[in-house]
Amino acid sequence: MSRSSRLLLVCFLGLLGFVLIIKALTVYTDFLWFGELNQSAVIWAIWGARLKLALVVGAVFFVWLFANLRIARRQAPRDVTIIGQRLLPDAERAAIEQHLDKAVLVFALLGGVLAGLAAGGQWQEWLKFLNGVPFGKQDPLLLKDIGFYLFRLPFWQYVWRTMFYGVVIAFVAVVLLHLYNESIRVQGRRIQATMQARTHCLMLLALAFLLKGVGYRLGVYTLMFTPSGAVPGGPGYSAIHYRLPVLYVQMLACVLAAALSLATIRLPNLRLPGYALAGLILLAFLFGVSFPTVMEYTKVRPNALNLEKKYIAYNIRATREAYGLDKVLDRTHRLVSDLTSDALERHPATIQNIRIWDDRPLQYTYRQQQALRQYYEFGRADLDRYQVNGQLRQVAISARQIDYGKVSNQWPNQHLQYTHGYGVCMSPVNLVDADGWPHYWVKGFPAAKGQPLLPTEEAANDEHLKLTAPGLYFMENVLIDLYGYGKLPPPEAAPSSGSPGQPGGGAPGPSAPPPADERRQARRNVSPLEQRQRKDDYVIVQGGVDEIDYPAGAETGDTFKTVYSGRGGVPMGTGLVRGFRRLAFFARWLPDWPILFYSLGRESRIMYNRLVPDRIWTLAPFLFPDAEPYPVIHEGRVVWIIDAYTFATRYPYSTALPARSPGLMPSYIRNSVKCTVDAYDGTTTLYVWDPTDPLIQTYQKMFPTLFRPKEEMPENLLRHTRYPRFLFDVQSTVFARYHVQNPITFFQGEDAWAIPKETLADDERDVEPYYVLMSLPGQDQKVEFLLIRPFNPITREKVNMVAWICARCDPEHYGELLLYRFSKVELSYGPMQIEARISQNEQLANFFNWKSKANDIIRGHTLVIPIGDSLMYVEPIYLQSKLNPVPKLSLVVVLSTSRIGYGANLADAIDMLFGKGGTPSEMAAPSVGEPGTELQPAGGQPAQTDAEIADRLSQAYAEAESRRMSGDFAGYASKVKELGPLIEQLKQQTGKGR
Questions:
Q1: Per-residue model confidence as pLDDT tens digits over 424-437
Q2: Which of 206, 522, 744, 919 is the most exposed place for a label (fewest CB within 10 A)?
Q3: 638 near 716, Cβ under 8 Å?
Q4: Domain ranges in the chain?
């Protein structure tokens, strides 16, 4: 070997060694992380399975390749007269011979290593193969248990692929080696070979043919979940009557081809195996593909109504079972009358909890009013229910988290000082203050260091809202954008702190939203997993540096400091252990070199995998975590609750859902696990929520220490569990078509439904599932937390509703799905009809026109609220200044079948809907007035008296002077801007009085 070759080899081996060391150190940090969660058994089981598979398969693959290549080497003819003169000169052959045996060994080793690495990636299939639990249900054709397709078949297919490709690779390598040895010679159209080479190659070819036949046998099983013809989830008539028989013919042909290859060992003509291979290819094309396709179009489709009926019935039954839709309770919602004030009086709790704050505008308003520092950020405003002052109330809650994109990128700031978010904001979904902002029950920061974060005065008696440990060291991903809520600004356009009326407020620069088509494309292409991707940031606590806790005062800009006192994170250790762990963490976060040299004490702890969905994904990679964890106040702490799903793509005859996200196209899904993550110390617990699911039963056998029964969840957390929107979205989308159980009706699409459309801001989209706290029809005195979605006829998405479906969230009825159908002769407006009625109302149209000159108008979700035997429609309208892009609630529109009302809040809108004394008003609403005035409530009275406007003027002026005296000129400017509209409003009202 030349000097340059040796240098190149040394460099290659050095690089390979460096990569292996980095990988090993990273795996070591994974072991430390699992140990922190007391789940070392999980990672040992995973890596035990990976290593066993890698070693066994790698060793077998190496021995197989090396043995075949050595046999080929030993079969080189010693007497050249057998085959004639050699092709290569003796000198060249001698040079090759010096390294050929080593090259053969390296090739076999490389093949073994690659096969071993591929085998290690099959650890899930292997563990499922060993621990799979029967489903107790069979496919309708082959009568195999469903568990065979989910737990057995994937591993058998992997074994088959490995064996087949191993034989093919060995065959090709052996043929090439025999050609080099000249044991095989090609002269013109003739192929000559020694008996040893002939035997060796033809036996390998025969084995490849036999294995191909095994592949066709496995193809019989994969046919059970391959869409065909009019059956979207499995084989139809053509697949069963034409494709399936061809598979058996192909199996027989492979056996005959293998026999012909073995027989050719004694025959002089080596072309016969080639003819056999060509025949198999021709058979696959003509009868495996073309013949079923021709029969599908010429015989099956013209007669599909009769021929496919049985298979469509299989598809309907399997799909309903796979998505948990076979237990939907079908009921009738009879609309006896239009909405009346008496109906509202019988449902006070429902009315009290109607949501007028959408999650997206509320998220941006929280950012404006409650961030208070540029490095704080709020994720989605989640909906939940709490007992407040003895009443069950629906609330919006969002956690104040750190956005590291807005923290100085200096290493101490990123990893030592800005370690955590702080507390939550909570507001009832149905209340708004006088200025159109949320009515907070939990907000801000404690007045003094060491004090708990207390609820506001209105909710002060509720101890369960008190936060004694409000630090959020473990968070959701605040970088998830909600993609395109009309004219709402992107997250990075939010102001650095404050909002109008808040200390430290300031007006951000204008921000243009992305075009509507780009937003729609983003929603289609971005998966929950892709949304969650961000840098695996880490923080070091108790690292000798005080951490930023929360602002001491908006006026001074000072902050309180803290030192972490929990048990979260991996201890750095002492002595040599600390040094080795430093090196391992440096390898994990290359090239973050300060971690190697920063002075750490024995108490220092390092936290990583801090994003809640990623934490679940890392701990249980066989589960699919939801993209929407939500915070719950529990025993003085913030605890994240996140749903996790078991799913499969091989449920026979079940229709795979069109990809909601890349990599997840399930034909079977269950919400079998609910996870909790303590935001302060990272304690992570996985509760089995659906113990009847065979998939979760299998995972429990695979990892006995990982899961805990649902009964062990604390009572307070149990009351805050909710049915996940992602699963309900999947189920309702499937159910829109699969509520039809008659195969003929299903095939004709006569009664298919669709998700209604709505106008959300300036974008038309499907109505999203929404949470409500309401009474079900027939249960006037009891309110439940429900998840609702309406349905329209599939060809008329913008007209009347035909039904609505709900999922019950409260513990005593959790997971029950109820379908309420409307009578086909009763009028039940759909969301887009309600949108049209709002737009066509003359007074509201005038309002939209003149308000849009100075503000962006954001139309919120149209909520359909069943009230007894009638329906109520509610749509909030938000205004957003073009100078200060923060949404504020400006108008609430309430509709019944024949009436419309609106006002500054829900109560005013309902009053206008029914007029004085509860008498229904006419369809024509009171006049809006000229630009610069406000909408008039019921009875045409002014929204505010002159004295009330004068009080607001006095208060705004006093606050402006206070800001000016304290040096807060941005706040002073925003308050001065508020004076103009108030003065103009007072002028016009006093002018009308004259």
A1: 999 999 998 878 88
A2: 919
A3: no
A4: 22-193, 212-307, 357-503+537-608, 948-993
